Amino acid sequence: MTEHGSSRQKSPKQNSVPAAVHLLVLSSRCILVKLASLNELAVQGRLWQKTAVIVADEDRSLITMTTEISTSINIKEPRWDQGTFMGRAKHFFTVTDPRNVLLTNEQLENAHKVISDYRQGVMSPGLTEDELWRAKYIFDSAFHPDTGEKMILIGRMSAQVPMNMTITGCMMTFYKTTPAVVLWQWINQSFNAIVNYTNRSGDAPLSVNQLGTAYVSATTGAVATALGLNALTKHISPLVGRLVPFAAVAAANCINIPLMRQRELKHGIPITDENDNRLGESTTAAKQAISQVVVSRILMASPGMAIPPFLMNTLEKKAFLKKFPWMSAPIQVVLVGFCLVFATPLCCALFPQKSSMSVSRLEPELQEKIRVSHPGVERVYFNKGL
Length: 386
Prior knowledge:
By secondary structure, the chain is mainly alpha-helical. 68% of the residues lie in helices and 5% in strands. The strands form two sheets. A two-stranded antiparallel ribbon has the order 1-2.
C-alpha cells in the first residue's frame, strides 16, 4: 500500500515536464501565427500604400486633364453674355477696374503675348482658363480693340475713376470764381478729349487739325456754359449753384464727343457681319454709336455730380467743416469717387459694346452693296466706342 501510494504520488511530477513542453510548443505556434498575420498585414499595408499612390497619381492626372485649357474659347468676345445688362455690367466692372492702371508694361506685354499666342493656337505651358480670361481683360483694358495699339494711360477706361473723381471733385468745390471755373473746365475738357480720342471707334486716325478743332470747341462750349449758368444762379439757392458744373459737363459732352469723332460722322465706322467679316463703313452706324456714347457719358457723370452737392450742402453747415474748411475738397473727391466706382461700369453697360443694326437702316448704297456681296446678311455689327 505504501509503495503503491508513493508511486501514485510521483506520477504528477513525471508528467509535469511533457505538459510544460506541450504548453511551450502551443505558445510558440501562436506567436508564429501572430507574426505571420502581422507580416501579412504589413504586406497588405504596403500594397494599400502603393494603391493609394497609384490612385492619387491617377487623381492628379484627372485633375490635370480637367483643368487643361480648351482651344475653342472665343476670346474675341467678353466672358459674360453681352445680350443681358448683367453680363455687360460684369464685363465692364472688370474692364474699368482702377487697379488695372497699376499694371506694369511687363504685365501688359505678357498679357498681349498670351492672347496673341492663343489666337494663333499656341498656348503657354500650364495656362489655365481663368488665367487666359485674366490676360484677356488686361489686354482689353490697355489695347484698342480696332487698332491694337497700346492706349494712353489716362485715356483708358480703368483710369476713369481716379482721374474723374479728382477733376470732378475739384470742379464742384471751386466753382464760385471765374478763374477757378475756367481752370477746372479746361482741365476736364482736356482730359475728356484724351479719353474720347483714345476710345474712338474704327482704325482711321484723326488729323491734327481735326483734333485741335474738337478740343478748342469743346473747351470753349464747356467754359461758356459754366460761366453763363454761374451768372444766372448768383441770386438763386447755393444748392442750384453747385449743380452748374454738371450742366456744363453735360453740354460739353454733347459737343466734345461728336467733334472728337467727326471723322466717323463724315466717313463712317467699320461694320461687319456676325463672323467679323468687314462689309464696309457706315455713317448711320456712326451716328447711333456716338449718340449712345453721349447718353452713357452724361449718365455716368450724373450720380457723382448730382448726389455730392446735396450732401456737401448739409455738411458745410456742420461744425466740422466750419472748423476745417480745407476738408471740403477731399471729402467731395471721395464722395465722387464712390459714385463713379459704380456709375462708370453700369453706364458703360447700358448699350452693348458690339452694337448692331438692321441692314435696312443703313445708307441705301451700302444696303445694295451688302445684298449683292453678302445676300444672307440681315444685321450688321460695329464697335460703338466708349
